[in-house]
Design goal:
Elements: H1 7-18, E1 30-35, E2 52-60, E3 65-72, E4 81-83, E5 90-92, E6 97-100, E7 104-110, H2 113-128
Length: about 130
């Protein structure tokens, strides 16, 4: 174990996750608990024994992979964050990444079209500013 991170425990959970054979059906705009894992440095981590974190499905590419955006209960502002109108969470835009559907644990919620449209604009702004 390095510092407070338990990479060995996560590695065992990752091996277990890889063996999942039934992939849940998912859609864009859904919020799921996913097995986010134990990550390096400032990358977002999952919590608990299953290393879970809520993630918004931003783009679905096929039945197996999607772009997801990790969510946080901590209120943050600035170009790298998006606070939802009707949710008590913040999307961490800078952490957008590709996920395999095997990581999906449980569906939590569904984001409204208005919030999702504003989120898409925030991502476009972030990308255009660089």
């Amino acid at each position: 174990m390095v510092g407070e991170k338990d990479f060995i425990k996560w590695n065992n959970k990752k091996i277990e996750t890889e063996t999942i054979s039934e992939i849940p059906f998912f859609h864009k705009r859904e919020i799921w608990w996913i097995r986010m894992g134990e990550n390096i440095g400032f990358e977002q981590n999952g919590k608990g024994s299953n290393f879970l974190r809520p993630v918004l499905i931003f783009r679905k590419f096929n039945q197996r992979v999607f772009w997801g955006i990790p969510l946080s209960k901590t209120k943050k502002s600035g170009i790298f964050y998006f606070a939802f109108e009707n949710k008590k969470s913040t999307a961490i835009l800078s952490q957008l990444r590709l996920f395999d559907a095997k990581r999906l644990q449980d569906k939590l919620d569904f984001m409204g079209k208005k919030d999702f449209g504003n989120l898409e604009k925030a991502i476009q702004k972030l990308l255009n500013d660089f």
